[in-house]
Amino acid sequence: MGIIISVAGKGGVGKTTIASILVKELCETGSPVLAIDADPNYNLGDRLGVEVSNTIGALREEIMKTKDELPSGVSKHELVEYQVRMALQEEDSFDLLTMGRQEGPGCYCFINSVLRSFIDALASKYQYIVIDNEAGLEHLSRRTTLGSDLLFIVADSSNIALQAAGRIGRLADEMELKIKRKALILNRTDKPPTDEIVQTTGYLFNAAYNVRTDGAVKETSDNGRSLMALQNITPAIEDIGRILSEELRYVKLLR
Predict the structure, then answer these.
(1) Residues 6 or more apart from 194 whose CB is under 8 A from it?
(2) CATH number for 239
(3) Which residues make beta-bridge pairs with 179?
(4) Left if phi > 0, otherwise alpha if psi is -120 to 50, otherwise beta: which for 171?
(5) How many whole angstroms from its chain centre is CA 89?
(6) Do 183 and 153 touch, CB atoms closer than 8 A?
(7) What is the DSSP string of 139-198?
(8) Is the pLDDT of residue 70 over 90?
(9) Of the four, 12, 88, 127, 170, which is 20 to 30 A from 81 by CA?
(10) Is the Cβ–Cβ distance between 135 and 11 less than 8 Å?
(11) Residue 102 clears pLDDT 80, i.e. is over it
C-alpha cells in the first residue's frame, strides 16, 4: 500500500485547495498518485482541472437498480469492480476517483464492503493516495480505507474552525482509525500557530503548521481554474511543499 494522506476540516477553511496542492506537489515527484474525492459536495476535480464524468455514488445507485438483472455468469463483485474502473478518471500525472453522494434508501452493505475491498486494492498500485474528506471522518471509514499514514486537519484562525479541528481529531481516535500522524494546518495565516491557538482545539496534534495567505491561489480557486498550473513560487505552495516534505519524513520513519 502506498502512503495515504487524508485531508479534513470544517467547510470553508480551504481543505480542498490544500488537498489539490498536495496532489500537485506529489505529482512533481514523478510517482503514481491517486486522488480520491470523498466529499459528497465534491469539487476536488474542479481544483485539479478534471471534469468529473461519473461518481461511485451514482454507480452504486445503478448497481442497486440492476443487481437482480445481472447477465449470466456475471457476479455482483465483478459488476462493482467494473463500475469502479469506469469511475476512475486517468490524467497524465494522477488518477481521480470521485465518491459522490451518500447512499439512498435500501441496504448497501454488500456493495460498500466490495467497494472498500476494491478501492483498497486499487490504492495499493499507487505510491501516494490523497483523500479529500467531508468535514467528519465517517466517510473515510465507511467508503474507503480504515486509516491513513497522515491526516492533515485544516482550520482557519476562528475559534469555531479550531474547535472543529479538535473534534475531528478526537473522532478519529474514537473510531480507532489507524493514523500514524495527525497534523493541524492553520490556513491563510501568515504567522505560525501559537501554543494558545493550538490549545483552543482541545486536541494534542503531532504537529501544527501555517499556510500563508496567497492571492494567486485564491484568485485561481475563485475563478474555478486548475491549481495544477500554478507555479511553485507562490507562498501557499511553498508552505504546503515544506509541510509535506517534513511530514513524509516522519511517516517514512514510522513505516
Answers:
(1) none
(2) 3.40.50.300
(3) 148
(4) alpha
(5) 16
(6) yes
(7) HHHHHS-SEEEEEEEEE-SSHHHHHHHHHHHHHHHHTT-EEEEEEEEEET-SSPPPHHHH
(8) no
(9) 127
(10) yes
(11) no
Cβ neighbour number for residue 152 with a 10 Å cutoff: 27
* Residue labelled with grid coordinates 498550473: 229
Question: What grid cell was written down for 130?
Answer: 490523497
Longest pairwise C-alpha distance within the chain: 64
Instruction: Show the domain range for 134.
Output: 3-254
* Closest by Cα among 54, 13, 232, 17 to 130: 17
Strand order in the sheet with 147-155: 89-90, 95-98, 33-38, 128-133, 3-9, 147-155, 178-187, 207-211
Quick one: cell of 23?
496532489
SS3 category, 38:
strand
Place of cell 501568515: 190
Q: What is the C-alpha to C-alpha distance for residues 208 and 152, in angstroms, rounded to an integer?
A: 9
Dihedral-angle region of residue 202 (phi above 0 means left; psi in -120 to 50 means alpha; beta otherwise): left
Cell of 38: 470523498
Q: Which residue has the cell 469506469?
A: 86
How many structural domains is the chain composed of?
1
Is residue 17 pLDDT above 60, yes or no? yes
- Distance in angstroms between the alpha carbons of the first and the last residue of the chain: 11
CA distances from 148 to 132, 144, 245, 252 (A): 12, 10, 17, 13
List the beta bridge partners of residue 152. 7, 183
Residue 69: predicted pLDDT: 64
Q: Is-above-0.85 flag for pTM? A: yes
